[in-house]
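Recall from the previous lesson that a structure prediction takes nothing but the amino acid sequence as input. Here we apply that procedure to UDP-4-amino-4, 6-dideoxy-N-acetyl-beta-L-altrosamine transaminase from Terrabacter terrigena. The sequence below is the only information supplied.
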Amino acid sequence: MIPYGRQSVNEDDIDAVAQVLRGDWLTTGPTVTAFEEQLAALSGASRCVSATSGTAALHIAYAAAGVGPGDEVVTTPMTFVATASCAVALGAKIRFVDIEDDTANIDPVALDAAVTDDTKVIACVDYAGHPIEIDAVNETARRVGALVVEDAAHSIGSTYKGRPVGSLADLTTFSFFPTKNMTTAEGGAVATLDPELGRRAHEFHFIGLVRDRARMRYPDEGPWHQEVHEWGLNYRLPDVLAALGISQLRRLAAFKERRAAIFARYQEGLAGVDGIRLPTQREHVDPIWHLYPLRVLGGRRREVFDAMRADGVGVQVNYIPVYWHPLFEDLGFKRGMCPNAEQFYAEELSLPMHAELTDAQVDKVIDAVRGAVGS
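The prediction returns the following tokens.
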């Protein structure tokens, strides 16, 4: 079976992890700091805070933004559930906004119409690696005094109008799960240009601990003293995984190049095939493709999914609209509220997309698509 996504780990990656295992620090040490600094340099952020997962990064970002009970968070339904559920975990009220028909990203026009003066955070997702229309989103956020969280789980290494993802929103979250564009095995990070948001993110992921004497309530307690001023959790990425992250960052440009080549090969090989719709790329973005979201028309997605799996191609579907999950149904959300997202879900089929795919495997996938749709 050709997997739809998988990690790419080489001997340099393994050696980097082994060096940390032979050293003095397994966690909360210098390798974490080095990883965060290199990640900030890549993303154009002033500070990055690493985390144990992309979900943890979202939780951290919402906490840093001050999301609490009753606050309104406006987001997209076309994402993994954590984009919304992490805000709900902090007591937020969620409002879903429909997506653009071509990119599957949040629709900036619909977003501008949906926000209110009660909106605390606008959370958008770079679906498949294609950046959102961040300039329009930021303009809407400033109009109502909201912060923007860019869920960039798919898009580390992407750029928008020449600017790197990580430098575009108030807070940006990354995921380093094995199927993502680079990996730390499990892991994530929060990037920001705002020093105060960076401090809040760091302290939340560090159990809320305050070690700055100037901010302590009891600074003369002793050199061992530390305080907790606000709730936090242990979301610290260990040095062992940060070492893998540093090694993977060195390979990210090569990963991006290979994914672009695979995307182009799919586009060429599937051009003109009836019954499908190919993904698009806008001229002002340079994405790192995490997914290849093919759309199967005519209500045949399940049929094509089953046929391709039987043919040894591990296709996937990304994603069920978030408000279809029972958790959100139980909060009162109804199907039908975001028709573009629901139509996209009904047609979307993720073809294999990862740096280890060979040209022969890509061609097999193309042949399997053609065979399954009857072209």
